[in-house]
Write the structure tokens for this entry.
Amino acid sequence: MDTTITKTNPLGTERVGKLILTFAVPSIISMVVNALYNIVDQIFIGQGVGYLGNGATNVVMPMTVIAIALSLLIGDGAAAYLSLKLGEGDEKSAANGIGCSISVMAIVGIVLCVLFNLFLEPLCRLFGATEDILPFAMDYGRIISYGILFASIDSGMAGMIRADGSPKYSMAGLLVGCITNIILDPIFIFVFHWGVKGAAWATIAGQILNAFLYLAYIRKFKSIRLDKACFRISGKVMAKVSSLGISSFITQIAIVLVMAVTNNILVSYGAQSKYGAEIPLTTIGITMKVNQIVSAVLLGLATGAQPIWGYNYGSGQKDRVKQTYRIILTASTIMLILAFLVFQFAPISIVRLFGSESELYNEFAVKCFRIFLLACPINGLQMATGIFFQAIGKPTQATVLSLSRQIVYLLPATLLLPLALGVEGALWAGPLADVLAFITTLVMLKLYWKKI
Amino acid sequence: MQGKIITISRQCGSGGHSIGSELAKRLDVPFYDREIIEMAAKESGFHQGFVEEKEEHMNSSLLFNIARYASYGGRGRYEDYQPLQDQLYFAQVKVIKELAGKGPCVIVGRCADYILRDRKDVLNIFIHADMAFKKKHCMERGQFSEGDNTEDRIRRRDKFRADHYQYYTDRKWGDSFHYHLCLDSSAFGIEGCVSIIEDACRGMHPAL
């Protein structure tokens, strides 16, 4: 009987190309929606308020990411804990883990909300606000900080709900939030003329709706039953949950670090250039967010391939493992080349989406796309390979790959290159980090490919 | 009369495998050690070489412990996809529960004491020994070849077992109060340990 199970598992027999389509499409959609969430505000603020408003969102972004990092530490950890305990058939511990995590997440959300409110100005300055941007950042950040509790619930509970076997519900919550934001943004900004405040209200309205949908799910968990006692906080359970969520946390904190450093470098070197402090800060933010959409597609593609890699590696079908890897790599690279062509030859059409500004602004924005994303076609290798190593149970290699670009290469390059090249040096840090990460990946593949 | 299921947790080189197999012979019950790997392989659809590799080569450095969970969160979110190590563990849980359901037996290692914690008919044993005994035993069994840094490898193996146990059970490996009997095989010898456990079994269940 056991052998028939092996034979009929589609992961081991179905055509690889077809499997990739089945698994990758949902994961691409969810990643892209997530990335869109960040960019929609920027488009409306750019059109309705101007680039100082967009700069303000860049300054506030790290605060949101800190909240996301903490809620993923708990939420992704709790999701893993749920899978772990359910896999073993221990529903009671699974329920305790989820209940306790939701309680802690709510407390963390409230504490962050208070802290961000109390220290809003120093935090804005820490993350790169200039005198011109500060008023916008304070307006935008104040409202965003009210919504932090809901943002925490959104990003924390999404994973739990997926792990409970309801990926569609989790997706629906996210979509409702995102669509609410897209609808309210133009109303608040263009009809009511609320400026950045309007964009912030639209954002947290979406977050609140999303959070209510997720909280309603507490009564609907399929695999566990949550009663009041489950919500009691246990230090032991939380220690385990956070040890499981630590990699999500580290990845997010790496993002905060890179954003904080990049913002500050651009402001201080930008002030010494003809562009001034604000233009570089704003344009790099737009560049990174546009690039996030491209990355979201690639990550969605590669994470969709995970079960295929994992199953076939485990069942010894190495040729299917390698075939899947080749398809993913080829598809990613083709997509990146297309993106590269747009970034190099039509950057201004993307820039205009985010509002029409001065010649100087356009000049630097175009430079951002052309220089910072110069090496993007080779990025596919590092992303696909990192997830590939995770899928086949080699997490050490995966972590080295995924953190090396951000922490080991991009961060120092962003700090050092401007010393020689001025504000444009910060842009050259992008392709330099890409090339170094590419080489690191090749070395890793050379070391491990034969053993696969 | 229904007999006992005996689980043996053991330090590397303490002779737990020999004690278990001898005990099973004397009690005339099935003995499971590596056989579980084979059965888990069938259960999960993974091939045996892979299962063994995962069993032997998971290391326990700090980086690994951080990185291990990368499969759950990290760059993307894919909670619906379980890491391979966990899939294997779940397969072993299923196999061990099935084996226990079939009747009395001796099971060595693999968190069996924890997995069977809800059953009342389980006798949990922990075997440990001093380093000299463990080194000698490993050499005799040809587990490590000459020139290897045996002591180091024994320690690493035990560290791995402790981490693995802690990860899946949230309990400390070798904590005496999780076991009915903790024995020092360097004090009693392999034969001595077998006899003591056998007596314990017969004392509790005269029909065995």
The interface with chain A takes residues 42-47, 49-50, 54, 61, 63-87, 89-90, 93, 97, 115, 168, 170 of chain B (CB under 8 Å).
